[in-house]
Design goal:
With 525 residues, the protein is an all-alpha fold. Among the domains are: 187 residues, no CATH class; 142 residues, Leucine-rich Repeat Variant. It has 26 helices and no strands. The N and C termini lie far apart (86 Å).
Length: 525
């Protein structure tokens, strides 16, 4: 078929895509000899690709035609003009498929009418994105993108499709985008490219989201005073284009963070800190979660000395700590779980990086003490009746106690009653994961706090034995409860080995067995 036939076929193909028919397959076409002999530059001219007034659907049709042309060619020699056109097309398609404002949050202060995409429209956007990424792959075969002057634009586009959780993305597009973006990531100029993305794409979108706690150089501000612009920035939707217009930039920022190393973190410090704090400080839980997750990624690559020198460790801690109180009933349980799963690892990583090495051990332990006391224990007191929240908090407690080591003994008087209370609760067996987490926490407490465990053996035995007997008496013991029972038996063995020599274990166990014969198979010395 000639190009007119191909354009018509492409139009029909695009119009036929719906939520129930999500095919991204190209229309079957056999190019005529005339079409085959046409150069890429001539085809682009015929399609009038450079016309700026085209709709998204028309752009999709052009992308489809170009894909058919490049997919069917065989051993074609490309002229200098074709190679120049490839450079243009890369930039053109990268801008054409970049996610639009329709996928961003709607600003409550906007005067515009809210745009809501239908399922069919979303399907078309996803199909167009995939077709655009396929075109970028075809163009890469024609002319490798070694020194493409539009590399920041192209990589920004590719990076925006590397997170499957985004509404504009689909698995096929993500796989192709990840593959293509990694080709660029292996470039010897990666550090320069990352700086370009941060400088040209990320910084302008976060420029109006000010934070009075830091300077323009990304350092802790001395005696910061809130400005009028800062105080009212949330009332202006234009202050957050990264949230209300160009939401794809958050995925791009994540891609950049994942490809940084220590030297590039140091080189781009003033470009990295404002977006991180803007996300963590945002009023929406969704963005706070992303901010905390991004902070954890950032800290893996952040030199401890740089964090200390800039004074931002305290700023990050103060920004993340309020997230720990995103608990039911003020926050939906599902969102609360996501928030806590992001915030606790970020704060634990922050303590490790901020206070790295033996000389900072006291300061690190102090930070972990605050996290245990003001985060985990307070969180459990406020939302412990939500079993999934309780399970998460107990798991985080285990991590913090492990980090503290023997210095965790100061918290035994608070930690052990919490854990044994969970184990001894009347309906504890209704949710085995919480029991398993609690028993594992008890095991950790026994190992790390062994010098003082003998003084708390009665409290520990109370929780373990009550829980063990309840599970033993269950009419139909589930596989999960069986694992809990086995973990309790391991915990008792640990306790026995730790306190043996300090107390008369045999006599105490015999006394307990005399009271309840069921304990005979548990309390074995």
């Amino acid at each position: 078929m000639n190009f007119e036939d191909l354009k018509n076929a492409s139009r029909n193909h695009v119009q036929g895509i719906t939520a129930n028919r999500r095919t991204s397959a190209l229309p079957k076409a056999c190019l005529s000899e005339e079409a085959r002999s046409t150069s890429l530059a001539s085809l682009v001219e015929k399609l009038e690709v450079a016309t700026s007034a085209k709709s998204q659907i028309q752009l999709f049709e052009d992308i489809t035609v170009l894909n058919v042309y490049l997919a069917e060619e065989r051993d074609r020699e490309h002229s200098r003009a074709d190679q120049d056109v490839v450079i243009f097309l890369r930039q053109w398609v990268a801008e054409a498929i970049l996610p639009t404002e329709a996928f961003a949050d709607f600003s409550p202060y906007s005067m515009k009418e809210k745009t809501t995409l239908t399922p069919d429209e979303i399907a078309k956007v996803r199909a167009m994105s995939l077709a655009g990424l396929q075109l970028l792959a075809h163009l890469q075969k024609v002319e490798p993108p070694s020194e493409d002057k539009h590399i920041v634009t192209i990589l920004t586009c590719l990076a925006s499709f590397t997170d499957l959780n985004e509404l504009w993305n689909c698995p096929e597009a993500m796989d192709r985008a990840c593959s293509l973006s990694e080709d660029y990531a292996t470039s010897k100029n990666l550090s320069t490219i990352l700086t370009g993305i941060l400088q040209e794409r990320v910084k302008p979108l976060f420029a109006k989201t000010k934070n009075a706690a830091i300077t323009q150089q990304g350092r802790k501000a001395i005696d910061p005073l809130p400005s009028a612009a800062t105080a009212h920035s949330d009332l202006d939707g234009d202050a957050k284009p990264w949230k209300y217009r160009d939401a794809y930039i958050i995925t791009v920022f994540q891609w950049v963070l994942n490809h940084l190393d220590e030297s590039s973190v140091q080189a781009n410090w003033p470009l990295l800190i404002p977006p991180l704090l803007a996300l963590i400080d945002d009023s929406s839980i969704e963005y706070k979660i992303k901010g905390c997750n991004f902070l954890a990624i950032f800290l893996q690559r952040c030199p401890s000395l740089l964090l200390e020198r800039t004074g931002l460790g305290e700023i990050f801690e103060n920004a993340v700590k309020p997230c720990l109180m995103s608990l039911p009933s003020l926050t939906e349980e599902a969102q609360s779980l996501q928030m806590l799963r992001a915030a606790y690892p970020a704060l634990i990583s922050l303590a490790r990086v901020r206070f790295h090495g033996g000389r900072h051990q006291a300061a690190r332990n102090k930070a972990l003490d605050r996290l245990l006391r003001d985060g985990i224990l307070k969180g459990y007191a406020n939302a412990g009746e939500h079993v999934k929240i309780a399970e998460l908090l107990v798991n985080e407690m285990t991590i913090v106690v492990t980090e503290l080591g023997v210095d965790s003994v100061k918290h035994l008087k608070h930690v052990l009653p919490l854990l044994t209370g969970i184990l001894a609760a009347p309906f504890a067996t209704a949710y085995p994961p919480l029991l398993q987490a609690s028993v594992k926490a008890v095991q950790t407490v026994i190992v790390t706090g062994w010098p003082r465990i003998a003084h708390h053996r009665g409290e520990i035995l109370k929780g373990l034995t009550i829980c063990w007997c309840r599970i033993r008496d269950e009419e139909a013991e589930s596989q999960e409860l069986k694992k809990v029972r086995e973990s309790i038996e391991q915990a008792v063995q640990l306790l026995t080995s730790v306190v043996t020599g300090n107390v008369k274990v045999v006599e105490e166990y015999e006394t307990l067995i005399d009271r309840d014969s069921r304990l005979r198979s548990l309390l074995v010395v």
